[in-house]
Amino acid sequence: MNTASHPVDRILPWRQMLTLGMQHMLVAYIGAIAVPLIVASALKMSPADTTVLISTALFCSGISTIFQTVGAWKLGVKLPILQGVAFSSVGPVIAIGLTPGIGFTGVCGAVIGAGLLTAFAAPLVGRLRRFFPPVVTGCIVTVIGMQLFPVAYQWVGGGGGVDKEAFGSLPFLGVTLLVATVILLINRFGSPFVRNLSVLIGLVVGTGLAVMLGMGHYANVAATPWFTLPVPFYFGKPEFSIVPIATMAVVMIVQMVESMGLFVAIGDIVEKEVSEEDVVRGLRANGVASAIAGMFAAFPFIAFMENVGLVILTGVRSRWIVAISGVLMCAVALVPKVGAIVAATPSAALGGAGIAMFGVVVAAGVQTLAKVDFENNRYNVLIVGFTIATALIPVMTPQLFAHMPAWTQPFVHSGVVLACLVSVGLNAVLNGVRPAERAQDEHADAACATMVRD
């Protein structure tokens, strides 16, 4: 009998957990392999080395996910968070890898060194938890969803590899519409269990239509090996140099700020309080997982918000389901051919799922902001307005910050980081710094007062 007191800690029947975990893994897979593909292309790696890089990235993503969901020792925030390679690390990784005399072994050393520094710095950064009341987390979640929209729209149009003339053609739009319609119909008429699988079913149906219309690139599946085994130090002994480690440490500091905002925001979404100690455990897990990733030639990790959208859409909050998806990612990493089939999923099918998942993330942010007292505190309106307007600059007009100093680029090109910095800064200046618990109580009292007046 399940005695868990919170849906996040609930253990469901194994068949249900396996199916839902597979759904999470499928949603995350494309994003999980994107970074190693980009890095391998930029560093001109051989097909065999590229396969190894993809497998190690998946394998270590699974390990990082297990750390965050299950927890071990003083590691893990214990929320339904699926971890993946952070896109913000792409630029520094390529720059370090192309530096004469350093190469990819220097990349591995930099990731290991920066990961260990992150783990040790986690308690210091975790003290900033009190700067994240609902007005801040609501802004962050809203921005997260809105900055994902361009990704979904790219999928809807057919993906980045489609010719400009074919982008957005009717077959692509038709597949996307079918997937979105299936998801809506299942959520309206399906049983509770089937509703939980609405995204997976929509993707399967959409992929079937897309293949019939000639979409999907399965030519590379035959050339992909059946089995591979990620081993540490495949590319050689890591080299530790001060400048590469410092460069990667700056990137991971930015990721720590972003991760802290994500932990608190996801806690609000699943309605589970995230304490300062929880934040520290989560940040420490990211650091340790990144250090392990450097040993296996992988990269730093961060939470995949696509999967948070899936949590919202299905309503299933169990962290154990996402832990199962972490195990599945490790398993798929050992069988590259299966991963190649998943990677060949037509982009238009992903577009329908993306529209649904990213849209509900924005709705979750709006729901959090609805609990904020705007009537009696006019500063909150300013905080939300300035935060969203600033955080969407990297999405809508990324060239606006082209002339900013080089050291600021990791900060100004992440909408989530900008949302954290602007909302936290404005809230501290306008509302003052208060303990998170007190701030939440005040927001709750304001909401109750509004209900009484109504």
Task: Set out the fold topology.
Layout: H1 14-42, H2 47-70, E1 83-85, H3 90-98, H4 103-126, H5 134-156, H6 170-189, H7 192-196, H8 198-212, H9 242-269, H10 276-295, E2 301-303, H11 305-314, H12 319-334, H13 336-343, H14 347-369, H15 378-391, H16 393-396, H17 409-412, H18 415-430, H19 436-453
Helix pairs in contact: 1-2, 1-12, 2-10, 2-12, 3-4, 4-9, 4-10, 5-9, 5-14, 5-15, 5-18, 6-8, 6-14, 8-14, 9-10, 9-18, 11-14, 15-18
Structure keywords:
68% helix, 1% strand, 454 residues, mainly alpha, globular
Distance between the termini: 42 Å
Count every beta strand, where a strand is a DSSP E run of 2 or more residues. Answer: 2
Spatial strand arrangement across the major sheet: 1-2
What's the helix-strand series? HHEHHHHHHHHEHHHHHHHHH
The proportion of strand residues reads under 5%
Note the main sheet: 2 strands, antiparallel
Structural class: mainly alpha
Query: Low-confidence stretches at least 5 residues in length (pLDDT < 50)?
Result: 436-454
Shape: globular
Q: Helical amount among residues, as a percent range?
A: 55-70%
Q: Counting H and I runs of at least 4 residues, what is the number of helices?
A: 19
Q: What does the average pLDDT come to?
A: 81
Keywords: Cell membrane, Membrane, Transmembrane, Transmembrane helix, Transport
Organism: Paraburkholderia caffeinitolerans
Transmembrane segments: 20-40, 52-73, 93-119, 131-155, 167-186, 193-212, 287-313, 320-342, 348-369, 381-401, 407-430
Subcellular location: Cell membrane
Description:
By secondary structure, the protein is mostly helical. It has one domain (7-453). Helices cover 68% and strands 1% of the residues. The protein contains 19 helices and two strands. It has helices spanning 14-42, 47-70, 90-98, 103-126, 134-156, 170-189, 192-196, 198-212, 242-269, 276-295, 305-314, 319-334, 336-343, 347-369, 378-391, 393-396, 409-412, 415-430, 436-453; strands at 83-85, 301-303. The chain has a two-stranded antiparallel ribbon. Helix 5 packs across helix 9, helix 6 packs antiparallel against helix 8 and helix 6 (170-189) crosses helix 14. The longest helix is centred in the N-terminal third of the chain and has 29 residues, at 14-42. The protein starts with 13 loop residues before the first helix and ends with a helix.
